[in-house]
Amino acid sequence: MKTILSAIAMALILVSCNQKTKEESTAADTKSTEATSQMYACSMHPEITGKKGEKCSKCGMELTVPVAATTSGTQTGKSDAAAANQSKADIEDILVSYLNLKNKLTKDDSNGAADKGKTLLASFNKFDFKSLDAKQKAAYLDIADDAKENAEHIGDNAGKLDHQREHFVLLSKDINDLIALFGTKQKLYQDYCPMADEGKGAIWISEIKDIKNPYEGSKMLTCGSIKKEL
């Protein structure tokens, strides 16, 4: 009888211990997920993360963009493939935003250029670089930091066409570097204006063979030449 009672008691103890261990594990997972969901990123520099309200170490803006929790296990390979496809789509979105901005400048449309500058900034901010290797990520972030600053200047200076075009010179170099890094499925052309940037000359990227100069607009719309196809 004592043996039976001892066995029952031991079984109850084991069940209790297993339940406690399971509860502790569940609590730890929940705490980890909560901790991840409490992380926030900078809208200008998404690689900078921290608690909500903290300042970005690069630009000083508050961290306001929630960082999504990541998953592991059998879904990793599928997630990586999806992230790679998303990155390619995001690059094409950036290029389309840049081309729309360029086309507004060819028409001397400063307000339109400002709107497209803001759209381009948003395109950079939503770029998903999770699938990039360390070298690509470092190269992208270097390009993106400069490009976002120039897009922001263009977006914030409606009515100041000359100022917008100054930043478009730098932005076009960034976009050219971005294409060199990732390539593109679009047929694009690198065009050159010898008069831009106070006579120093500057490139821009175009989706058409016809020269339509964003630096000169209506003054000298056809000034320039195609340097190469990208």
Give a verbal description of the structure.
With 230 residues, the protein is mainly α. Helix content is 55%, strand content 10%. The protein is built from 5 helices and 6 strands. The chain has helices at 2-37, 76-106, 110-125, 134-155, 161-182, and strands spanning 39-41, 49-51, 65-66, 189-193, 202-206, 225-229. Strands 2-1-3 form a 3-stranded antiparallel sheet. Strand 1 (39-41) and strand 2 (49-51) form a beta hairpin. It is globular, with a radius of gyration of 26 Å.
Strand tally is 6
Distance between the first and last residues' Cα: 87 Å
Low-confidence stretches: 11-15, 30-36, 69-78
CATH architecture of the domain at 80-185: Up-down Bundle
Identify the notable features of this structure and list them briefly.
3-stranded antiparallel sheet, 5 helices, Four Helix Bundle (Hemerythrin (Met), subunit A), 6 strands, mainly alpha, 230 residues, globular
